[in-house]
Write a structure and sequence with these properties.
Elements: E1 10-14, H1 18-29, E2 33-38, H2 41-50, E3 53-56, H3 64-67, E4 74-78, H4 100-112, E5 116-122, E6 133-134, H5 145-158, E7 166-171, E8 173-175, H6 181-186, E9 192-193, E10 199-200, E11 202-204, H7 205-218, E12 224-228, E13 234-235, H8 236-247, E14 254-255, H9 257-264, H10 267-274, E15 278-279, H11 282-287, H12 297-309
Parallel strand pairs: 1-2, 1-4, 2-3, 4-5, 5-7, 6-15, 7-12, 8-11, 9-14
Antiparallel strand pairs: 10-13
Helix pairs in contact: 1-7, 8-12, 9-10
The structure holds NADP nicotinamide-adenine-dinucleotide phosphate.
Length: 311
């Protein structure tokens, strides 16, 4: 069972991608020591420039490259996606291949100790709930290979009998500076599926990083799952209209879900456009006493546009 954690002064971020970099910025600002991994030259250079310890590491490389920074004053944030697109169950009593990288990290944390283990998961674990409002207690019924892998990893983590709390953050659609619907529409790859009536759950990257730091600082002393979402899901059409109007660009082309499915032929992409849930964030707000800077996607995009328009 998990026992109360000590207060960490170090963050070890496995996978300093879009979220990991924002977390790095905020955590350095709060005087944490940051150790972060990437496989990308530019990211490694950026991390060093910020004052983080940058570690070039890919799953399968020697984990001692970062494991030497583990200890009771280190919180670990696992921000690496599932490494496979298709689901393969376990064979011959071994762990499924999608759990193995997480298992390796947990084993090192067990040996070297950490103050907390935070796993960035995804709302794809819920599957389709017909647009109902749900919280973290809802049934997990993933319909996509990635959602099934995430659900397996979550079960595996929540079953761990370790001396530190494991928290799972179920992330929804991440947006923020440099990762916007505007970019997507302008790339010509975005289509409005089925009239854009399906709601989507979103969260600004700035709030994700703040919420992770809140978990690090005052998360529960037991294993616990949290939805990381702004709690104000919106029909895709409303956001698309908002963005196109603000940027003064044409609306994207439309297509039916059937056309989209035929064209993409990717069960993960299709599930993202098909499944419908409205996600509550009461646990995040009430248990962690967390308030969002960007309470809905319109507030978030307003801020991004303001930044963009600044001379
Ligand atoms: N984007 C979304 O809307 C969304 C929604 C729900 C959940 N999530 C999940 O939330 C987490 C953070 O999302 P994000 O958008 O910030 O992710 P991201 O920008 O794609 O960053 C992922 C990080 O994982 C690292 N990584 C990938 N494969 C790796 C491998 N084989 N070995 C070592 N490192 C590897 C990447 O390394 P490099 O730095 O070398 O590229 C990168 O640093 C991810 O797990 C993502 O799947 C995302």
């Amino acid at each position: 069972m998990a026992t109360p954690s000590s207060s960490p002064d170090t963050l070890l971020i496995l996978g300093a991608g879009y979220t990991g970099k924002e977390l790095t910025r905020q955590a350095l600002h709060s005087d944490y020591r940051i150790i972060a991994t990437s496989r990308d030259d530019d990211t490694l250079q950026w991390l060093e420039q910020q004052g983080a310890v940058a570690v070039r590491w890919s799953v399968g490389d020697d984990p001692q490259l970062w494991a030497r920074y583990l200890g009771e004053s280190t919180a670990l944030v696992y921000s690496i996606p599932t490494l496979f697109r298709d689901y393969q169950p376990a064979t011959n009593g071994t762990l499924p291949r999608h759990i193995q990288p997480v298992d390796e990290v947990i084993e090192l944390c067990r040996q070297e100790k950490v103050s907390r283990f935070i796993y960035l998961s995804s709302s794809s674990v819920y599957g389709d709930h017909g647009g109902e409002w749900i919280d973290e207690t809802a049934d997990l019924a993933p319909t996509s290979p990635v959602g099934k892998m995430r659900a397996d990893i979550e079960h595996f983590l929540l079953d761990q009998n370790v001396d530190f709390p494991i928290n799972i953050a179920r992330l929804v659609g991440i947006y923020g500076p440099g990762r916007t619907l505007l970019k997507y529409i302008q790339s010509g790859r975005y289509t409005l599926v089925d009239d854009g009536s399906r709601v989507s759950n979103r969260i600004h990257v700035h709030d994700i990083a703040r919420a992770i730091l809140t978990l690090v600082e005052r998360g529960p002393d037991e294993h616990r799952v949290f939805n990381f979402t702004d709690g104000h899901p919106q029909p895709s059409r409303d956001l698309v209209n908002f963005v196109c109007h603000k940027a003064d660009i044409d609306l994207p082309p439309e297509e039916s879900l059937e056309e989209y499915a035929r064209r993409r032929n990717d069960p993960n992409a299709i599930a993202r456009r098909k499944n419908s849930v409205r996600l509550l964030n009461d646990r995040l707000r009430n248990e962690l006493n967390f308030s969002l800077v960007y309470p809905d996607v319109f507030a978030g995009y307003d801020a991004i546009f303001e930044q963009r328009d600044r001379p």
